[in-house]
Write a structure and sequence with these properties.
The protein has about 90 residues and is mostly helical. The chain has one domain. About 60% of the residues lie in helices and about 5% in strands. It has a two-stranded antiparallel ribbon with strand order 1-2. Helix 1 packs antiparallel against helix 2. It is elongated. The relative contact order is 0.13. The model has no long low-confidence stretch (mean pLDDT about 85).
């Protein structure tokens, strides 16, 4: 089009990926370990449930379970996760 510099639309260039899949997975593992640590710490102190700033209960067992799920998903190979999601979608 004539309103572009040079008379043609510039092509979009994909940005280079700086952080790889390893760093994302490491972040998920750290988050999962943090949730597990907080859940076990609260449970050992006898706090089975606490309220967040919305007044909703957060159970210690839920923190531990969510942390385990984060760690398991982070260490599972991506190809296996893709197959699992494709299998679950095909069942619906």
């Amino acid at each position: 089009m004539p309103f572009h510099v040079g008379g043609r639309k510039p092509k979009y260039v994909l940005p280079e990926k700086r952080s790889g899949l390893v760093w994302q997975r490491l972040g998920f593992i750290c988050l999962g370990m943090f949730l597990i640590f907080v859940g076990i710490k609260r449970q050992s102190e006898g706090i089975l449930a606490a309220a967040n700033h919305y007044g909703m209960p957060i159970y210690s067992a839920t923190l531990i379970s969510l942390g385990v799920v984060f760690v398991v998903v982070a260490i599972t190979p991506p190809r296996l996760l893709e197959r699992l999601v494709a299998w679950l979608i095909s069942k619906t």
